[in-house]
Design a protein that fits this description.
The chain has about 375 residues and is an all-alpha fold. The protein is built from 14 helices and 2 strands. It has a two-stranded antiparallel ribbon.
Length: about 375
């Protein structure tokens, strides 16, 4: 419609009222969405146990602005909607018919427009349905209650139980960082670089992979020893670094070593006493103090095998190749042997002794073991 057209001048007050009503509806909708967004951001910060800072207000403002623009577009009255609202005042479709026949030059259309304009001019805007809807108010109240509940709910409700392994891991990282600073102050760039690489590996590693972390520590120990042998690092600094790495390894394997020690004590053969159980394959002791083989077995010194060891031994002593083998309980702590193998694999991979196509399978193998 042209602004100079009498139709536009007559309809303008009605449409202005409808535009203001649409703006109010859009504002209420935006406030509702902003309150929900603010409460959700606050609640998310408490769930994640982090300081949300200004994020809730930023999220609420962004959501409210976007919703306001979208709602204003949706609620903005069109010409047909304005005519329909005018007809609802008792004009009996005069406004809608006038809008439909606005381009009709016939005499009947001319008479209809004049009648509609006269009737509309005599009708006020006071009776238009532009009140605030009850649903909009209810939704806004619910949004305010949700925001208040999210603000008042204690963050302790979402706090997870402290994992001792996480605390140990943080202590180990702090210990290694302090050692890195000391090495840098002493000018041991090579050792400090190795320590930095270890810290970065542990920070990126899943904290459940304790054995893999121990393997990384073992690899760093070997690298520090090589640096001292090649004259790239001072031996005193290297020994201090090894002490720190040993303490870190013990901290990570503390619980596993205690469990392994308890299992070893339960299965260990205690000498002396009546009714004691002997290890399989062992009989009475001979004159030399060594256990006598049972029937059907040969002595280790006769066949070149240590008693029960499965490895050659001329003097009857176990010839187990594992340095962590316990000759009394006959057990090998899994954590120790895994870390030894894994550190050896890391060294061989760095030296290029393991083909590239095999490295992926090896990594998958060790990852499967460290579960």
């Amino acid at each position: 419609m042209n602004r100079s057209d009498p139709m536009s001048a007559v309809i303008r007050p009605f449409r202005t009222r409808l535009v203001l009503y649409a703006a109010i509806r859009a504002l209420l909708t935006a406030l509702t969405a902003g309150c929900f967004a603010w409460g959700a951001a606050v609640l998310m910060g408490k769930i994640r146990q982090t300081d949300a800072g200004s994020l809730p207000w930023t999220a609420a403002a962004a959501v409210a602005a976007a919703v306001f623009c979208l709602a204003l577009i949706v609620f903005f009255p069109s010409r047909k909607e304005t005519a329909r609202q005018i007809d609802a005042l008792g004009l009996k479709e005069r406004a809608s018919t006038m809008l439909a026949l606005r381009n009709d030059p016939s005499g009947i259309a001319f008479l209809q427009r004049n009648d509609a304009l006269r009737t509309i001019d005599m009708t006020g805007t006071r009776g238009m349905r532009t009140g605030i809807r009850r649903l909009s108010v209810i939704l806004l109240l619910l949004a305010l209650l949700f925001a208040a509940a999210c603000r008042l709910v204690p963050a302790a409700w979402f706090a997870r139980a402290a994992d001792p392994l996480d605390e140990v891991w943080e202590q180990v990282l702090e210990m290694l960082r302090e050692e890195e600073i000391r090495l840098e102050e002493r000018g041991e760039e090579t050792l400090a670089g190795e320590m930095q690489d270890l810290i970065e590996s542990l920070e990126e590693m899943d904290r459940e992979n304790v054995l893999r972390a121990v393997g990384e520590i073992n690899g760093t120990e070997e690298a520090a020893k090589d640096a001292a042998r090649n004259g790239e690092a001072d031996r005193g600094a290297m020994k201090e670094m090894l002490d720190v790495l040993e303490e870190a390894r013990r901290a990570l394997l503390g619980e596993e070593e205690e469990e392994a020690a308890e299992e070893g004590e339960e299965g260990q053969m205690q000498p002396g006493g009546e009714g004691e159980e002997r290890m399989p394959g062992m009989g009475e002791e001979g004159e030399d103090g060594m256990p006598m083989p049972q029937d059907g077995e040969e002595r280790g010194d006769e066949n070149g095998m240590g008693p029960g060891s499965g490895e050659p031994g001329m003097d009857g002593v176990s010839r187990q190749t594992e340095p962590v083998y316990d000759p009394i309980s006959g057990s090998v702590p899994y954590g120790d042997v895994f870390s030894a193998y894994y550190s050896e694999y890391l060294r061989d991979a760095e030296d290029g002794e393991i083909p590239f196509e095999v490295q992926e399978a090896a990594r998958a193998y060790f990852a499967g073991l460290d579960q």
